């Protein structure tokens, strides 16, 4: 510790002056002081045999403030009262929290946290990436914080297991990859989820769709249409799936199947299933396909798949074709047509034994509606199209677009969204009882 402090004091007051334009808590000087103070605190805790976990937050804060002041005075470190308070708060997070990540994890506006090495941290807010105002002392600091998050989850991150994907207690997801697979230091991605998922009304108010589409989605779920939500990464697929599931009648039994449990359905009867990765030798793995097969024996009314990305597509098609109407899933694809091509490809990889024509007939028979969602350049997430799957014609799956999203500029050159009806009403007989309701919704939106 002494060598660290000496190197800091050798920088002298001039070094602080050169960094005046930089926020103190983002400077290397701050990281040097923080590292040394953290080591000093750990030594003091060990000397006093203190059990900080049993202390109240106020007691911990008072202890850290007192010991930090003693450290600063002992080593004559030039910090003012404001910088002293920043240092104390950072040390509280280092001792009892998740270090520099604590403030981002507590910020409800942060959707994603992306760590590209110790001094390159980005966050996503409202769909747009921006540089975060935090940094770590070094790569070891990053690993210490990430391992602190992973330890209670029973997951490890080291040279023998340099990749990890874990679900956080609050429903978020963490993915980390380190050396030797990550060349430039630890790469960590944390996806946060709202404790209270968006309702359909909230998404409509945020401009993700209009009332006519709200009415169509509601009617489709209530009519037990099989719906596939298609979109790119971070386009809002999970949020939309959560919202649409709230339309399900309270009497339904819903089973969710996911790789990493992210869905938080607002429904009274939900059974959540999550796949399991294998041990170091690969044994004990439980895949989504296994969970899909088991879910069919659990008396589901609806099956909701967090994301279709592998051989489980065959079980999904089987479920949708054998009486489990009203099931929903998401898939990575850039358009409804790409979505259908991707399902064919996944089924082929899964070892589908039938002909191409029979596979397409199964897909067309299983799916009723494809909802395409995208993230625009300004970060907004909107439904860009709603497409009905009609059947198979000339060996191709026939579809028709019901709504298309378009943008326009007002007189002040501000960009707005609108959803244009293409004049087609859904052909699906499941929606027959809702046709008048849909006509009234379209008329209401028009005027």
TrEMBL record:
Pfam families: T2SSE (PF00437). It comes from Frateuria aurantia (strain ATCC 33424 / DSM 6220 / KCTC 2777 / LMG 1558 / NBRC 3245 / NCIMB 13370). Belongs to the GSP E family. Signal peptide: none annotated. This is Flp pilus assembly protein, ATPase CpaF. CDD domains: VirB11-like_ATPase (cd01130). One of its GO terms (molecular function) is ATP hydrolysis activity. Residues 97-374 form the Bacterial type II secretion system protein E domain.
